[in-house]
Amino acid sequence: MKSITKQKPFDEIKEQLADFDRVFIVGCGTCTTMLKTGGVDQVAEMREKLQELGKRVSGEVVIPTACDEMTEAVMKENSPAIENAACVLVMTCALGVHRLSLYLDRPVIPALDTLFIAMEDTPGYFHEVCAQCGQCVLGETAAICPITACHKGLVNGPCGGTNNGKCEVDKEKDCAWTLIYQRLKEQGRLDLMRRYFPPRNYQVVPRPRTLKIP
Amino acid sequence: MVFRDVLNSGKFVVTSEVAPPKGTNLDNLRHHIDLLKDKVDAINVTDHQSSVMRFPSIGGCLAIKEQGGEPILQMTCRDRNRLALQAELLLAYSRGIRNVLCLTGDAVPVGDHKEAKGVFDLDSVQLLKTIRLLETGKDLGGNDLDGAVEFCAGAIVTPEANPIEPQLIKFEKKVEAGAEFFQTQGIYDLDNFGRFMEYARQFPVKVLAGIILLSSARMAKFMTENVPGIFVPQNLIDELAAAPKGEALSRGIEIAGRMIATLKKDAICDGVHIMAIGREEVVPDILAAAGM
């Protein structure tokens, strides 16, 4: 599983940093390194861009996995440089931003947008496979998720917008229900596609979602 | 006669549709309703067609009622969750609207509010089931209604879809969910449509063939290339292209009339649904060309 991120437009980052002259930058050695959005190189590039803007960069660190609890120790190690900064610019996914905010009294500013969680199908191609809906239907849909792979999240078969196996929103995108149909047919399980799915429960775990292991 | 009775009367049924305006000027809509209400058995009102924000479908249906016509309320699942859909069905029934066409709805990004949230809390099959449930005096929350509804419920099907089998599976789910009639996506290849009808005949539903007016060879080609489930055979495109300058539209009217006449004469289906897409004023000409 990878958290897929994209750098925010630089103008937006600039605007969010407008009130801060000294910045500490944090990257992540896991997902954003793989995505090339918050690894060592991107953190260095960001430092240069901020310096060109006239900001002082008091320090930078790429945490091995920003979302786990080891982050607290890394923040402690870097506390002199962080205290020297007016804010922390975070080049991790939103999980890292959240984790950092637990340990810092400085404003935490995300430099990235977190898009979705995905698998890497082929090198550099990330594919959203789960929307974390809380009601897995993969057993009935030949392991292709209609909630995620169908633009409309339909559970009772394709809409009328499908054309030659493609989706109406993008001719490059496969119609999830054509894929499900083909795979169920190969498996001799088309009867599953004839089954009626009732309206879904959108409150399996009401938001904000939390879970405590007993 | 109410639409359900017309459907069951054995006569060749004709429906057409009007699109509400973007704004509050209803002059054109009312004009089209006046033009159509005595020529067709019922008039659909589109529901933010192509995901373009407009005056609502139910508003158009109320205008049809006021003008003495029989409306078919098109309801998509794109813009309303299950509370809003059920509430609108209650409103529709209370105001004398008796026919509903249940659709999934086009995707949000194809329309003019590209950043909006698509809802799709229910889908077309679930919406049909919801209508049948409301008729029993219960809502989706399991609660009793103080005053139920009763609708003639319909759905759509795309006989030219490729691959066709997933569409047919969904068609059958819609039948089981309670669809009484189907209006099809536009069809042009009558042999192919005839094969679809041989299959559809085994179900206790009425099928109205979708007739989309072709206004030029260019439009026909565009639809074939860009509209899912539409396939205009080359001979029809050639026929439109061969029309003298300025006469492509009348050729299109002729083609539509000819198709309707054949569907009726050979009793291929139960009726037609004529979509003139912005040229509603020629629907009477299409019917005249069909000898009706």
Ranges of chain A with pLDDT <50 over ≥5 residues?
A: none
Number of strand segments of chain B: 8
In sequence order, what are the helices and strands of chain A, one letter per element? EHEHHEHHEHEEEHEEHH
Quaternary structure annotation: heterodimer
Based on CA inertia axes, which overall geometry of chain B fits?
globular
Helix coverage percent of residues of chain A? 25-40%
User: Helix amount of chain B, in percent?
Assistant: 40-55%
CATH architectural category of the largest domain in chain A: 3-Layer(aba) Sandwich
- Main beta sheet of chain A, described? 4 strands, parallel
Radius of gyration of chain A: 22 Å
Task: Please tell me about this protein's structure.
The complex is a heterodimer of chains A (214) and B (292). Chain A is of the alpha/beta class. Chain A folds into 2 domains: 2-116, Response regulator (Rossmann fold), CATH 3.40.50.2300; 129-192, no CATH class. In chain A, 30% of the residues lie in helices and 24% in strands. The mean pLDDT of chain A is 96. Chain B is of the alpha/beta class and 292 residues long. Chain B has a single domain, classed as TIM Barrel, CATH 3.20.20. Helices cover 40% and strands 15% of the residues of chain B. In chain B, β6 (181-186), α7 (190-200) and β7 form a beta-alpha-beta unit. The longest helix of chain B has 18 residues, at 248-265. Classes of the chains: A alpha/beta (214), B alpha/beta (292).
